[in-house]
Structures are given as C-alpha cells and as structure tokens.
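Hi R.,

Here's the chain you asked about this morning:
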Amino acid sequence: MKARSAQPARRVAVLGIAAIGAVSLLGGCGFETRQQAAAIVNGEVISESDVQQTHDQLKSAKLDFAENIVVTALVAAPLLKDAVSKSGSWQPDETYASVIASIPNATDTTKEFVEAVALIQSQKMTPADVAAYRADLKKADITVNPKYGTVVPSDEGPVYFTIGQKTPNWVKPGTNSAPPTAQ
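And here is the predicted structure, written out as tokens:
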C-alpha cells in the first residue's frame, strides 16, 4: 500500500521538474532573442539581422546610412507613425515611393526605415504631432545593443535623440599631432 501512495508524489515531482525545465528553456529563448536584438522598443525587438539587411538594401540602392542611423530610425519609426496617424498630417508620399521603387524586394524593416526618414524629411509634422511623439518618446522603454551605442537624448533634431557614444572614444587615435620638436 505504501508503494501506491508514493506513486502520486513521484508523479507530481516529475511533473514539477518537467515544468521547471520547460520554463527554463522558454526563458532561455527570450534571452537569446534579446542577445540578437539591435534594439527593443516597448517590448518589440528590432533584430540585428533586420538592421544588417536594411543597411545592405540601402547601400545597394546607393543610400549610405551608418548602422547606428538605421537603428535610430527604426527605434523612432513606430513612435513617429503613431504620432502622425492621429492627425493624418503625413502619408507615404512620392519620396517614399521613389526610394522604395529603387530597392528591389525591400523588406518590411527597410520600408519602415524609409517611411521614418521620408516623414522626417517632409517636415509635415504638426506641433501637436511633435508634442505627441516627444511624450511617447519619454515614456518609451528603449534598450539598445551596446554595439550601436546608447540612446543620447537631445532637445534638437527631428527625432530628439541619437544612438551613439555619450563620451568620446579615447582609444581611437585623435587628430592632435605631437608638438613640434625644437631643433
């Protein structure tokens, strides 16, 4: 009789260990996804592979943007889109269409980048759009892969932040030359 009463306890223990293992594996997947992220904006992952593919597609279309600029625009894109969608002050225009036409098989991420840049360059955001965007930007939970730098807030510019280094890279050789030697 004791052997039978041990069975349910053993089954519960095995199920418990299996559940812990499953949670660990699922948690590991989230960690791996975050490790492969260029940035995370309000829980939405911008993958490094998407940034690289967008960078490559832009480069093949003779549009030279540094990867940290691609990440900056992709971080700002959903916040900008939300801000102008309320007022309808901007819709994809001929600039957007022209650039997308020059990129064969543009990915959705590349289209988001081009849309954000076209919106910014159009200068059609109303003061209310800008205020809504800046409020959303302040509330946004933004994490950037250190490979690209950090979010540097700014009171200027169309996106009001940059992604890069906050302090100069002192390891990189500077432009200062050695003082002249006396002869």
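One quick note: Confidence is low (pLDDT under 50) at residues 12-16, 18-31.

Cheers,
M.
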